[in-house]
Amino acid sequence: MDEPPAGEPPHRSPLVIALLASVFAVATCGLVYELLASTIASYLLGDSVTQFSTVIGTYLFAMGMGSYASRWVTKDELALFVRVELLIALLGGCSAAALFIAFPFVESFRILLYALVFAIGAFVGLEIPLLMRILRGRYSFSDTVSNVLTFDYVGALAASLLFPLVLVPMIGLVRTGFLFGLMNVGVAMLLLWVLPDRRAMRGDKIASVLIAALLLAGMIYSEKLQRWSENAGYGENVIYAVSTPYQRLAITRGGGDLRLYLNGNLQFSSRDEYRYHEALVHPAMGRVANPRHILILGGGDGLAAREILRHPGVRDVTLVDLDPEMTRIFGRSEMLTRLNHGSLNDPRVHVINADAFGWVRAARRQYDVIIVDFPDPTDFAIGKLYTDSFYRALAHLVAPGGMVSVQSTSPLVAPGAFWTVATTMEAAGFTTRSYHAYVPSFGEWGYTLAALGPIPQHARIIAGNRFVTAAEEPNLFDFPPDMARRPVAVNRLDNQILVRLFAREWSVYEN
Amino acid sequence: MKISRRAALGAGALGAGALGLGAIGWSWGGAPAISSELGGADFARGHRLRDGGFPEPSVTERRDIVIAGGGIAGLAAGWQLAEAGVSDFALLELEDDVGGNARGGRNAISAYPLGAHYLPVQNRESRAIIHLLEKLGMVTGRDEAGRPIYDPLQLCADLDERVLWQGKWHEGLVPSTGLADGDVADLTAFNAAMTRFQAAVGADGRPAFALPIAYSSTDDAYRALDRVDFASWLRQQGWSSPILWGHIRYACRDDYGCEPEHVSAWAGIHYFAGRRGWAADGAGDGLLTWPEGNARLARMMAARFADNIARGRIVWRVARDGTGVVVDSFDVARGVSVRTRARAVILATPHFLSVRIAGDLVPQATGFSYAPWIIANVSLTRPPAGPGSRLAWDNVAFVGESLGYVVANHQTRALGPLASVVTWYMPLSRMEPAAARRLLLERDGAAWRDMVVADLLRSNPDLTGAITHVALWRWGHAMIRPTPGFIHAIAPAARAAVHAPLFLAHSDLSGLSLFEEAHYRGTEAAEAAMRHIGHEFESML
């Protein structure tokens, strides 16, 4: 294409209009992909400042590389532009889905993330100079630059407004990706079909139709894709997620509700966790004359510790949780310390990161109250924390007159599993009294109170509770027939009947 | 063997973008090298024994009793002497560590077994071992019925075993889904027959199949089964189900290192009918296991009489000396031979070594053959997984040449994808033992490593990229082969051919390479030796 003579009016051919529309589309799509990658990275890896700055930095750098590479394009700019557009459609359109789905499987998620961002950025960076060169035959140099950059920046504004206001809340991240991929394909198809020489690009037309079909399918099945991906399964309001050596930890927020998931299982919802934790802590605390030395096993979220610290006589709280990441974020994050009242940073609280099974067997001190707040027995490694061997070791740590409280899963959904806890503790020499509370986000939930002697009938419940009050507490011990005690076997290390029973009862419930 | 990481998803997304990303993709998808090491019984010392040329003794010492060999039989003998108050005895071991097949190793992740790795809950007749377990604190008491209470922390934690069958893991070792009617019929008939044998009692009031086998009935109705091979016997019963045969082949290779064609029907049936675990709390079907396997038992037994044990001592000649014996041994550390005059000697060595050392006193016997094994302790960055049942202690692929793997850190495993060591086992049962031993010596470590890795990835593709190290161990003479006629004809004849003041103690004199047999033979020899020297004791047998 030759430089047009000065002063000649620009061509208003359909091709030119299509090209200018494509500048707008490319700019919008490019920025949307960049925002998608940043947002997903902050959801999955946490620390949004770092994620946004590194993703944007990578993206801009890649654009520069792409622009630089454009100097080696010497012919067929238009054909190459269409092909690059198709590649961007494919990569960018699938990027959100790919990142969500790949996260649980790949070891180096960051490499995948930055590689994807780099590839998209480089292709987008290659497109703008190409477009300028294609248009330079139709406009003067200054008009070309002005037109291209105007559409480019206006496109960016459109993307940055649409993304938070419309796309994320109404369409969702995964579907947004597919939608903008389709927009890229649309631009490519538009160009393909208005191109002067049609025969030359038959292969590209077929590719464009295939890519469009793929993206459309992705768009339609994005719900299924999301269910397929563990992370997206929480809904798209994951605000923090991390894979520690021990578990997948995710914190979500929706409205005013903050939720913690471990390996996809809900641990608490900030709306009603007070019900769960008041019921876990105060019946045991209220049955010990002067609870001074407290042990919490599990409970790395610091919420049981928060309830314990409301008792003014408490001198020290030892909290043993397996996962350092868990106690770290619940001690540091402002949003989470607001919830647990900074309990993990209280000078009376001593946090130990260890496997409770080994720790309890090695421990020598005794405690007035022991709160056992482990995840449900979904795995043999957790199941051993519910065995007679574990409770026998635990019995050595109970001070005279001391009390133990154990979270014991749902007596309504899994009555067999629930009563196995009491039966097993009794086999280990404890007397038990079981009780339950209604926690809306969990349903009907059960606890086992245990002591080495008789368990007092009445508890002194501290003032200020929202759920477990002195008047209401006795009612927690009533079990209607559908949750009534039934004969079950003792859970031992070599039979682990609890894990099997739990899985069976919950699977019936969930089907 | 090149191991590519699971980068498929990333690679798919990157495939289109070829902008200089190749380099990143390579370093990402590239295979981390899997290191390996090749170990085994000390061939140099063993072969030196064969080739001779030791210096004549320059030092002389005197003992009441000498035990040659520190495997389980020798350790059981030493334990029994120590318990009975014999203090003037020495146990001489060729290797640097006692335990024999029950030795263990250790790396940064976990201790692991080099051979024997578990002990079943004992039968009621296994008095000596129950007593030993009480002394070691592994049996903590007795219930009202007198049944031993096993320490739950030493019993294998659930899940104990799973089998890979038709692409999915299932609990147990025998497939129970996707079976043909013929399979179900044969399995049912076989199990019923084994249950009858398990309960069978001979005219002499003894169990048909006891463990230790010395307590078994002498009725010829049962002993006749030792004269026919197991495969023929199974065919006579009309059982042809490939599932049943697959399971039986696994069992024979697991306990005897042999194919069903090579073991006697008595031995084959014993695997299924010989165990009647006697324990409180329904633990009868359980087993004891530890990260280092039976090395735990070996070390605890050795600790009882540590001062009596000398390691790195090659016993190369045992001869009569008046009413006593002289034992000449080469001290590897000092480079000299030591002559020990003793009133009695217990040869706790495999029979072929006993013949070589004490040729005049131990007549050559025919019919002794030993199964070679290769095992590998494989370091992993994360535990194995797979579809279906969760990871168990013992994990077996129903179709395959290896016997699968046990998880060394099963007993101590905590939550999460933490590093693990799995111990992988394979008897070279399809080859003639001598040819297989040559192969063990000739093939290099890399070749064995590649075979182990390939086998492991066949059953557990999830371990792709997770294997970091393969520690191989070769056992040339791992197990006595209970061939037809061995247990009830050849072995008793070999035992009867040796007389005081020499006593033999080895599981090959029973015909089954089991802890129970080694322990029984060791205890029996110690008691016979004490009778010979006139030392009072209370029999454990």
Entry keywords:
heterodimer; A: 511 residues; alpha/beta; Growth Hormone, Chain: A; Rossmann fold; 2 domains; seven-stranded mixed β-sheet; four-stranded antiparallel β-sheet; 17 helices; 11 strands; elongated; disordered N terminus; B: 541 residues; FAD/NAD(P)-binding domain; eight-stranded mixed β-sheet; 16 helices; 22% strand
- Mean pLDDT of chain B, as a whole number? 91
Order of helices and strands of chain A: HHHHHHHHEEEEHEHEHHEHEHHEHEEH
For the sheet with most strands of chain B, the description reads: 8 strands, mixed
Helix content of chain A: 40-55%
Rg calc of chain B: 24 Å
Summarize the structure.
The complex is a heterodimer of chains A (511) and B (541). Chain A is α/β, with parallel strands linked by helices.
List the helices and strands and how they pair.
The complex is a heterodimer of chains A (511) and B (541).
Chain A: H1 14-45, H2 48-69, H3 77-102, H4 109-135, H5 141-171, H6 173-194, H7 202-220, H8 222-228, E1 238-243, E2 248-254, E3 257-262, E4 265-269, H9 273-285, E5 293-298, H10 303-308, E6 316-320, H11 324-332, H12 334-340, E7 349-352, H13 356-362, E8 367-373, H14 380-383, H15 388-395, E9 398-407, H16 415-427, E10 431-439, E11 443-451, H17 497-510
Parallel strand pairs in A: 5-6, 5-8, 6-7, 8-9
Antiparallel strand pairs in A: 1-2, 2-3, 3-4, 9-11, 10-11
Chain B: H1 8-15, H2 22-29, E1 35-40, H3 43-51, E2 59-68, H4 72-83, E3 89-92, E4 104-106, E5 111-113, E6 119-120, H5 127-135, E7 139-142, E8 148-150, E9 161-165, E10 168-171, H6 181-199, H7 220-223, H8 230-236, H9 242-256, H10 265-273, E11 287-288, H11 295-304, E12 309-310, E13 313-321, E14 324-331, E15 336-347, H12 351-357, E16 370-380, E17 394-397, E18 405-407, E19 420-427, H13 433-442, H14 445-459, E20 467-480, H15 486-496, E21 502-504, H16 515-533
Parallel strand pairs in B: 1-20, 2-3, 2-15, 3-12, 9-17, 15-21
Antiparallel strand pairs in B: 4-5, 6-11, 7-8, 9-10, 13-14, 14-15, 16-19, 16-20, 17-18, 18-19
Helix pairs in contact in B: 4-11, 4-16, 6-10, 8-10
